[in-house]
UniProtKB/TrEMBL annotation:
The lineage of its organism: Archaea, Methanobacteriati, Methanobacteriota, Stenosarchaea group, Methanomicrobia. SUPFAM superfamilies: Radical SAM enzymes. The keyword Hydrolase does not apply. InterPro entries: Aldolase_TIM (IPR013785), Elp3/MiaA/NifB-like_rSAM (IPR006638), MoaA_NifB_PqqE_Fe-S-bd_CS (IPR000385), Nase_CF_NifB (IPR005980), rSAM (IPR007197), rSAM_sf (IPR058240). Its cofactor is [4Fe-4S] cluster. Involved in the biosynthesis of the iron-molybdenum cofactor (FeMo-co or M-cluster) found in the dinitrogenase enzyme of the nitrogenase complex in nitrogen-fixing microorganisms. NifB catalyzes the crucial step of radical SAM-dependent carbide insertion that occurs concomitant with the insertion of a 9th sulfur and the rearrangement/coupling of two [4Fe-4S] clusters into a [8Fe-9S-C] cluster, the precursor to the M-cluster. GO terms for biological process: molybdopterin cofactor biosynthetic process. Pathway: Cofactor biosynthesis; Fe-Mo cofactor biosynthesis. This is FeMo cofactor biosynthesis protein NifB. Belongs to the radical SAM superfamily. NifB family. Signal peptide: none annotated. Keywords: 4Fe-4S, Iron, Iron-sulfur, Lyase, Metal-binding, Nitrogen fixation, S-adenosyl-L-methionine.
Length: 328
């Protein structure tokens, strides 16, 4: 169960984090910009079903040439996910985070929890992470705590139902299809309640917001203000990938995105190093090995082993010097 050592400091506009949570953040490449160069993550594509259809989302299961959310070369069973985790953690010990981010919504798939249970049992030291649209977050939170999820990303594109209704085509909630403002109200209510409950339970929350010019670009700072009230740790303003029903829209420029980030910065820390990863990505953020050749992966494996042996030798030498210093 995640450590219950997180509270909100309203004066300093951010959560107060305990020692164990701070350690996990320092090893999470998405939550700490310095960690992205030292530590990696693995995304396990065990969750194909989704309960929401966003107008910018196209989920592809076999597309090796794209790097974006919703893309994976194969959907894994929980057992396959465990076997892949074993292999990758053995070859690349710098990977500290095991995450499930799709290609659908993890909370709409029982396989998510089956996979996490298997991985936590064998690798209790890794950080378990999840990304979700938040629709089922309030009722699935107990399951998340049971399997040990300690870092969570929720995609929140609007807190105004009129705006959200333009972004989502439909929502499937408890077997019924909702559309328009009614669908948006259900999703926003569950997202905000779920985020607050997750933070109160000790989970560190990151919020992703897709910046959509002409739809929510003037509204994102309002989202940031709400995230500040809830105690969200970090916010990731992501540029629209114009596909699906939004294929005709122009993505924001780098300057437009930067301006929104700067407007949001007073309320919640901004993530500026996102790579909009695939659902089966692994390795460093800037070095997705899921798209590399076997030869390139082997070179990284060799380099990782060499670096690991050097680090052990340095620790051994430093330990001897420290012991000799105490004797003197």
């Amino acid at each position: 169960m995640p450590e219950e050592n997180q509270s909100v400091d309203n004066e300093n506009k951010g959560p107060i984090l305990g020692e164990e949570i701070r350690r996990k953040i320092s090893e999470h490449p998405c939550y700490d910009k310095n960690a992205q160069h030292k530590f990696g993550r693995i995304h396990l594509a065990v969750a194909p079903k989704c309960n929401i259809q966003c107008n910018f989302c196209v989920r592809e299961f076999d597309c090796v040439n794209e790097s974006r959310p919703g893309v994976t070369s194969k959907v894994l069973s929980p057992q396959e996910a465990l076997e892949k985790t074993r292999q990758i953690l053995a070859d690349y010990p710098f990977i500290k985070v095991v995450a499930i981010a799709g290609p659908g919504d993890p909370l709409a798939n029982d396989e998510t929890f089956e996979a996490f249970e298997l991985i936590r049992k064998e690798f209790p030291e890794v950080t378990l992470c999840m990304s979700t649209n938040g629709l089922m977050l309030p009722e699935k939170l107990p399951d998340m705590l049971r399997v040990g999820v300690s870092t969570l990303t929720v995609t929140v594109n609007a807190i105004d139902p009129e705006i959200q209704a333009k972004i989502v085509n439909h929502v499937v909630y408890h077997g019924k299809v909702y559309r328009g403002v009614e669908a948006a109200e259900i999703q926003i209510k569950n997202q905000l309640e779920g985020i607050k409950a997750a933070i109160d339970a000790g989970i560190v929350v990151k919020v992703n917001t897709v910046l959509i010019p002409g739809i929510n670009d003037k509204h994102v700072v309002e989202i940031a203000r709400k995230l500040n009230e809830l105690g969200v740790y970090i916010m990731n303003v992501m540029p629209l990938i114009n596909q699906g029903a939004f294929a005709h829209l122009e993505p924001p420029t780098a300057e437009e995105r930067k301006a929104v980030q700067e407007a949001c910065e007073p309320y919640v820390m901004q993530m500026r190093h996102c790579r909009q990863c695939r659902s089966d990505a692994y390795g460093l953020l800037a070095q997705d090995m899921s798209q590399m050749s076997e030869e390139r992966r082997n070179l990284i494996k060799i380099q990782t082993k060499e670096d690991f042996e050097k680090a052990k030798e340095v620790l051994k030498t430093n330990g001897k010097e420290e012991a000799e210093g105490k004797k003197a």
